[in-house]
Write the structure tokens for this entry.
Amino acid sequence: MTPASATLPSHAIGVFDSGVGGLTVARALMQRLPEENIIYFGDTARVPYGIKSVETIAHYATQIAQFLLERRVKLLVVACNTMAAVAARAIADLSPVPVLDVIDAGARAAAAASRTRRVGVIGTLATVASGAYDRAIHAAAADVEVRSQACPLFVPFVEEGWLTHPATRLTAEEYLAPLRGAGLDTLVLGCTHYPLLAPLIQEVVGAEIALVDSADTVAADAAELLERLGLRNRVGRGEHRFYVSDVPQRFQQIGERFLGRPLTGVQVVGW
Amino acid sequence: MTPASATLPSHAIGVFDSGVGGLTVARALMQRLPEENIIYFGDTARVPYGIKSVETIAHYATQIAQFLLERRVKLLVVACNTMAAVAARAIADLSPVPVLDVIDAGARAAAAASRTRRVGVIGTLATVASGAYDRAIHAAAADVEVRSQACPLFVPFVEEGWLTHPATRLTAEEYLAPLRGAGLDTLVLGCTHYPLLAPLIQEVVGAEIALVDSADTVAADAAELLERLGLRNRVGRGEHRFYVSDVPQRFQQIGERFLGRPLTGVQVVGW
């Protein structure tokens, strides 16, 4: 008989985010690992985290990690750049299962990809202020220079669905101006909302700069890690459960934009 | 001896908002009633409310009202349009002291001011979806037609400090287009952030439309009500206390932009 505490391949991957943005990470995991069970938690009642203090973000992040661990996940994926930026250590300290996060994944991918050894990072105020990407990129490759830029209006534009609107373009031009002509060849989309703006960002920064989407890289890391630990699920199609702390205005519409498929079976946790 | 439960003129006015926006209401109260003690609560950890569900907003609103009532306020002022839109009744039900809110004040001012009997209202998604302004304006004057428009990007633009940026102007032109040519002569700024965009909004809608700022009207209502109840404080200069649930990024800078004066003595409530 298997002891109650043993981790099994059939256990789910726990993915969490401050809201719906992390559904881009869930989507990448579903594409790469269609047999895996996934439990997603989006803290839609308290989103956005990007402007909150470090203490508050860490408190919320550990609360959510506990929630997922109680559901016996075999792996935690921190899909929120802001949480990864300021609470990765706190989450790792309390978790008996491995923890992957979008910052670590994106930083290593960028460090490996850059030929000019100059990498740009865009993210929320909290992510950029934390310096987490700088540290993670330098840990992966000490010779890479990092230029960071906070883009606070990108999340609201994505949630409004203005992905190619002239106002979004004007905003992108202003935010990204300091990154142009800086010799970058790689730009990390350091927020889960930003991949939806990738075509616009690409136009503004120019085709010679490669964009790194952490959702793809963290999904690749998860596949590799589960394989190595002998925890890949290989039976049937994975089940996907979604927990949120609120069902906000336009939730279904915005959630499906991120997930890229119908969003069903959503349960509300009354925190 | 005065019984412990009696309300005294020296008791504070309790003002609350989902974040810093309500500081425009605190500011209007300070200008009109400089002798009054004021306790402000801003739910900066959980801001913004504008996209949350009705249930969650009502839950948070009653929690904050209780917090202020425990501090023996003589009057509650709901400075957040979103909370007033969906939780005014819940707050009134639990409060032993009078409750004023920005929607009721703004609606009555607009109904009284309009000559064309056509009034526009702009606000968050939750405020507009609630229909609260429509109901309040019709209660004040059944013959007034109301046209409403949600402007979800206005709050992020104000918090970014882009009050006159070309991207803000483009956004305002798009949001406000349906309101032009509709025969309006009065437009209610149905969100406490919007007064900071008043010059831009005025330019876009044209000088013939009068803007109603609920902060001013609710402060006038408070003065009149306290006078009538014999609860005006007439001794010395008022003391102002500020409670927040988080000290977010750029809090001081953004808060002072709203309050129009230095923001000191802020205490964090660890919810």
User: Anything to note?
Assistant: DSSP finds eleven helices and ten strands in chain B. The mean pLDDT of chain B is 94.
